[in-house]
Amino acid sequence: MSKTSYCAYLTGFISPEVKDTCSSSVECRSPPLIQFSQSSVPLHRNYILSTFCTEHNVQECLSHINQEVSSLGLPPVWTESSGSSEMNVMAVLNCMYDLIQLHHRGLRTLENMEVEQLKSSSNVDHLQRTSTQLKEQLELSKRGNTGLLERERQLHLKVKSLQNCLKNEKDEVQKLQNIIASRASQYNHEMKRKEREFTKLKERLNQLLVDKKEKKQAIDVLNNIGRADGKRSLWKTQKTEAKHEGEMYKTLLSDYDTRQREMLLENAELKKVLQQIKKEMVSILSLRKPIRKDDKHPDAGIQADSEDEEQVFDSSKESVGLFSVHAREKLTNSIRLQWRRLKSHVERLDSQASLAQMGENKTDDAISRETHEEEMDRLKLEIQPCKDFIQTQQQLLQQQLSSPCDEETTSLLSNCYMLQERERFREEWKTLEKQRNLFERERRNCTEAAIRLSHERKAFEDDRAVWLKHQFLNLSPFADLRKPQMSKSKSCFLISETESSASSAPEKLIKCRSDTTSPTPRCVPLTSASTADMHRTVCLVPEKRYVVFICTNHDMPVTNAALVVCYELFMLIFYFQINQTKWKD
Amino acid sequence: MNFSEVFKQSNQLCKVSPDGKYLATCVQYRLVVRDVSTLQILQLYTCLDQISHMDWSSDSLFILCAMYKRGLVQVWSLEQPDWHCKIDEGSIGLVSSRWSPDGRHILNTTEFHLRVTVWSLCTKAVSYIKYPKACQKGIDFSRDGCYMALAERRDCKDYVSVFVCDDWHLLRHFETETQDLAGLEWSPNGCVLAVWDSCLEYKVLLYSLDGRLLSAYSAYEWSLGVKSVTWSPNSQFLAIGSYDEKVRILNHITWKKITQFEHPSSINNTKAVVYKEVEKRTAVGSDDLSLHITIGTALYNTRSKYEICPSPVQIPVVKPDPDRANPKIGVSSLAFSSDSRYLATKNDNMASVVWVWDMQKMSLVAVLEQTSAVRCFQWDPCRPRLALCTGNTTLYLWSPAGCVSVQVPTEGGFQVQSLNWHRSGDSLMLLGKEQLCLCYMDTDQEDKSLGCSFCLPS
């Protein structure tokens, strides 16, 4: 049964019209879902309690059933047209069978539906559960959020209170500072007052003690001793005062003098260092000058400047540079310039180095550093014996040179060299000869091929003439069909013939049978180990058409003759194809 | 290293004469003069009372003995033992007495700093200098003995007077920009006078000999300021130790700060070598690598030696009482080595540690952590060698080559309270409470045979 009829059956079963018609049946009144779930039980009950058909209402029942059956789209069980009241048993049975089939199908679908329903209900349950969970979570997070908000509010309050506190504290500090300041000033004032009093008291005490007669200050010396320097003390006069001043200034001056001298020395030292630095810088920069000749123009200008300065600061003028302000300035300026240039140079080198490093990093992906190092080590190892070899050679040479060598040995030596040279030339000559032979052979092949081609062309020309003659003479289409077949086979034979002849040559001619029906020519590239300069691949598609494809090795120039041959071959095949299509039409 | 026998002394009054030939010691009211090389008594003088101060004249010919309680000063001549001189300050009192650089004048400061009396031994003349200021260091003579700077206080302002020592002529008199001048010190070349304010204000002023203000330096305000000031022997650096536990170094050209040395409680500097003194009570160590050789009687079985601590090192710090005046914090002692290469400092709240700084690299070189508080440290006048004592029986020496601790091999527990180098750097005078002892350095290499334990930096 198709899907649509099944649907019709279902709708018919549930539809209210159906319910109305079978008002007596119990199961029809009950909701369809329950009926589905208890499908097996009511059927059984029906079987027992069936009061649908009695002896009296057979006809009605029959018509009713007939109606029902027809409404279900089954062939009628009983037809009135047949006249007899007897039922067609076969039809009934068929109908019953169909009904049972329907019923089974219904049951199956019911089961499926039940399963589906169970599934969906469980799904719904699950979803409900998850939704409740999510709701709970939402609730929880909401609560957390409110808590956090509350906390934030509290913290804000706290911050505010703290800020207030801070402000208060600051005020307090200010106040205290003011207090301290005022107290300090008061204290200072008091101190001064006290000190004044103290000095007054001191004065008074001093007075009293000096005036006191009983215990006076005294010195008791046995005999006066001489001054340490042996001189007599001098009276205090203007002269001594001036002398003291003079001495004081003298000491100060001498101190300044020594300091100046020290600084001069230091300066000289530093200048020497500067000069040296400058010289070294100039030497470094001049080293890179030739390399960077093509560099920017300002640089060149600076170089010119520095050259000028170099002239100023010759070694002979060093002493002048030490003391003249102008020269000093020039020196510092030039050093600054040089330094700037050196710096830029170093920076450039730095950037280059970093770039190189980056590049290195890139290559590192392919070849690791270790392999590099290994390679290096290997090369170093290789270098060592080479060096030794060179050394020994040099030694030998030296010995030879040092030892008294006569003309004979030298001539022998030169002969040796000549012999070697000649041998080398001979070898070269051989290889050249070989190459020449090769070329010759190739050329021969090509000419042969050309000759063959001309033969073929001639044959073809003949063929065509024959064909044209036939066409002119015989206009029947059946005779037409036979001719091309023959020509095709002939051409095929011709190609194979060329193949065989070509295979004898060092060039390789490959025949390839394409198994696809694609009309595009396919090329099978081949690489040959021989010195042959040309490869050909011939693709023959026997079903539809012949495709000859020439693949040439691009390294080698194709000789003209060969090209001509190929071209002609190609043309030939093309011609065949055209003919074939024509015949097909 | 050799040690002399022990002599008696009182009040730690022992001094070697400036020429290095004689050793004067005071025992109660007696003055004993010995020959340094033989330690034989040359002269013996008897004073009128217990001597409270004793000093040699610059020419090593006279010795001054002051008895402050009696207000008396007695002067003795080495050449003429029967020559005598007595100066009586009378009822005006005496608190300090010193020689003038020429060795012919005595400057007495009276009680309450009423005045400074200058007594001439040549002429018996007396002159007064009024208004001297009572402060940490109010008088300083220039190294060459030509000038004397005196701090004064008049009309609640600080002044400095520069006198010519030759005839006490007042050369310069100028007001200083200080609130309360605490001290002054001449640079070793005698051309610059450093003046610093009291600890309430961080201020260091530098004046030229002619009274010009060269520069004023202040590191910070408000908190307690300068605690100690020292010139380097070459006059190139001025080191200022302060209450913030730092030493600031000023240069002599711009008078700006070159660098500052901090005294952190944990040392992370890997370049500095930290020597830690370790006391061991065990006898001759079996596994001890350092040389411990017991000498004589094993009376003192506590042997101390240095160990090198790998950084970081935590240094014991005593927190000062903030309520008390003159808190025990900050750099109170500074000393440059004779070649101005090294600077040794002591921070008062790390009393058991001496820091040695390199003035060329401007960095910490060594830290000597002792077991007890450092009493005194002094540089060898000829070599970069630092001697220190901590009031126990051991003498400690540091040099760039390493550290050594030496047990003083005397009976009766000689506790080294103070020490003084001989001017040649060959011997060291160790002062105990009532004793003294000379320690002779070996001129070539430090002796390893006497209870020394060496510690060489790796």
UniProtKB/TrEMBL annotation, chain A:
Assign the protein's first listed, main location to one coarse class. Answer: other
Q: Which domain of life is it from?
A: Eukaryota
GO biological process annotation, one example: cell adhesion
Q: Which residues cross the membrane?
A: 558-576
| Keywords of this entry | Cell adhesion, Cell junction, Coiled coil, Cytoplasm, Cytoskeleton, Membrane, Transmembrane, Transmembrane helix
**Cellular localisation:** Cell junction, Adherens junction; Cytoplasm, Cytoskeleton, Microtubule organizing center, Centrosome, Centriolar satellite
Q: Which InterPro entries match?
A: Adhesion_Centrosome_assoc, Afadin/alpha-actinin-bd
UniProt-annotated stretches for the region Disordered: 293-313
Coiled coil ranges: 159-218
Q: Which GO terms describe its cellular component?
A: adherens junction; centriolar satellite; ciliary basal body
Q: Which family does it belong to?
A: Belongs to the ADIP family.
Name assigned to this protein: SSX family member 2 interacting protein
For this protein's source organism, the top of the classification is: Eukaryota, Metazoa, Chordata, Craniata, Vertebrata
Automatic annotation (TrEMBL), chain B:
The signal sequence is none
**InterPro entries noted in UniProt:** Centrosome-WD_assoc, Quino_amine_DH_bsu, WD40/YVTN_repeat-like_dom_sf, WD40_rpt
GO annotation terms (biological process): lens development in camera-type eye; retina layer formation
Domain of life per record: Eukaryota
Q: Which GO terms describe its cellular component?
A: microtubule organizing center; MWP complex
A Pfam family matched in the record: WD40
Q: Which Gene3D superfamilies match?
A: YVTN repeat-like/Quinoprotein amine dehydrogenase (2.130.10.10)
Any idea what this protein is called?
WD repeat containing, antisense to TP73
| Source organism (scientific name) | Cyclopterus lumpus
The record's gene field reads: wrap73
